[in-house]
Amino acid sequence: MSPARPPGASRLATYFHVHLVSDSTGETLNAMAKAVIARFDGVIPIEHIYALVRSNKQMERVLEEVAAAPGVVLHTLVDRELREQLEEGCRRLQMPQIGALDPLVGALSRYLGADVSARVGAQHALDTGYFNRMSALDYAIAHDDGQGTLEQLEQADVVLCGVSRTSKTPTCIYLAHRGIRAANVPLVPGQEDGERLTALKHPLVVGLTVSPDRLVQIRRNRLDGLNAGHASAYVDHDSVREETIKARRAFERRGWPTIDVTRRSVEETAAAIINLLSERRSRKLGAPM
What we know:
Its EC number is 2.7.11.32, 2.7.4.27. With 289 residues, the protein is α/β, with parallel strands linked by helices. 45% of the residues lie in helices and 16% in strands. It is elongated.
């Protein structure tokens, strides 16, 4: 019998096959699988992705792949016949299969007292929400890095402001995919200090901050990728520290909410901004927080 592993000791990574089967794009299922697997340390999935599975012949090929690489099968199938084919095939192969959305859909159906739609890919319909997201994406691209007049920036839901390399652009793009019109304006020493944004009435202006050490690291990586030297104020620690301090003071002076992105992913920064927008909307409506 092998000795027990001491608490905190490292372990070898566990690899396993996970089959993701969807009759739509598979985006929902892929995101759910990643979120769940991230809860387990030392586990590395070997993903097999099957999107737009809408025929019995396609399902047969899926089951052949499952048989060749045994593992967990996750699905978001809407079509009853295809579900039954997959479930029967997994029983025959003695492979676990899980309808990823089943618990949530079932609970909502019982709560609402409503039948579940059998329409495949309903969340990807070309409806008003879809076109709003596309419009927001166009807006984010057209108003990136300080582009646009004050009048055009007035059309934004949120304007992000911060020194160079504080994830302004990717955060705007992420927000656009949520249907939020986002622009960004960089703070450039000696050129742009964000003062013009104080004239904006409609959009929420949010300042993005970051620790000097982290910012220097990011900027050096950026210069390395461009095969550029490091001999500039752009990566000088004292200069960067002064730059970030001035940015923080400018945000405080103008009363703008700030978000420290030092240890935040783009998704987490965007979520914080969405919360700020929601709180602002609630205050305007006079709703209780």
